[in-house]
Amino acid sequence: MQKRDQSKLGGASGSSAAPAAKRGRPFGSGTNSAAAVAAAVGGDSAAPSTLLGPSLQVHSAFTVLALQSGLKSELTWALNALTLLSFKEKDDVRKDATALAKIPGVLDTLLQVIDDWREIALPRVLTKTPRVRLLGMNTAVTGFGNGYETGDSVARPGTGSGSPNDEVSAQKTATKPRPSGWWFEEDGLFHLDEEGRAEKQLCAAAASNIIRNFSFMADNEISMSQSRHCLETMFQCLEDNITEDEELVTNALETIMNLGPLIELRMFLPSKPFIMSPKRVVQVIMAMLGSPVKPWQCATAELLGRLILNPDNETFLQSFAPQIYGRLVDMMSIPSSDAQAAAIGALYNFAEINLDCRLKLASERWAIDRLLKVVRTPHPVPEICRKATLILENLVLEPQNKPLLLAYENAFADMLLSDTRYSDTFARILFELTSRPSSKVASARGIWGM
Fold first, then answer.
1. CA distance 310 to 360
2. Of 23-37, 95-109, 300-314, which gets the smallest average pLDDT?
């Protein structure tokens, strides 16, 4: 993977001096007041006098045309402008946040920038010597890389540069037969050099950052969650997380996480002529859940908790339920409050679905023990402890789970007597454990009866 110089593109993906943005806030939330530049698209926004800071007047069609041009200077300008248009502090009182509906075609154009990078991001298999480019000498120069600069290492005949011997040698090289399909190789006619590839990589990262920022706006959630092109591109970036640019993967994951409650996995049916299918999407999510990068694990667990809120997604996710529960239970053992919070938040939503989910979760090894450990420690966020106790209460409501939970009866009693915050919940748990399952209305009162 190319190492990207953050000084490129003139800050297309935000200020290089700014600290990393926190989850739940658009990129650049730690910048100074200059980053909160108010943007007025066309004449649809409020008057400049009502905006905070200087006003950036940009016609909506200009940014799309600049992105479609493929020229380095135009593309850089458009990415910088859209970064400002998509940026908004979480508590910003600015009312001119630019929705995607105000700039028709910008989402697909940004996705095309990412697709263009992904087409050339494949690793080079063969190393070959440079060859003379005889064709396409008068084609438009995009500005990416050094392939058309004066003093290029690859000689070009007819330019007057180089010795006559070099030109003769170049002509001999050009007359050699080429294997079939040579123009598809990386050092072919229309491919970029290493610096050009690095610049394309920066543009893709900046485009993904803009899409991520747009996903924070409520006005964009429906249109983005219904765009199959958008979701497929994001999931493909996650699928290639081992070889893909880390910033691009992170932006794609947070974009999907923001849109999670509105995503319907059935939209990936039929899979043809598209690439992704519902099964493949869930497999990508499971691969990210097992990633060695802990922030990706936490974000993926949170994504699962949001996807399961949509009843239409239950069919696709429950086929992977054993793997999902096993991984989420393992995350609860990680000595990280964020990992435990993400895992318990997802398990809380899964435990409220149906009987089958509660049975599979209760039978998962170490699940009950680690849920109790989170409450005993306790977790620094009280809401996480409350959800852990409610998960236990949901599990004990199923008669088939009582033999598994009876082994922890003494632990439940200790929590009842020692922790007043969750004593009511543990009292209900103990009542369910000791009451007869035949009749809940007129059941025999156990020693923990109410």
1. 20
2. 23-37
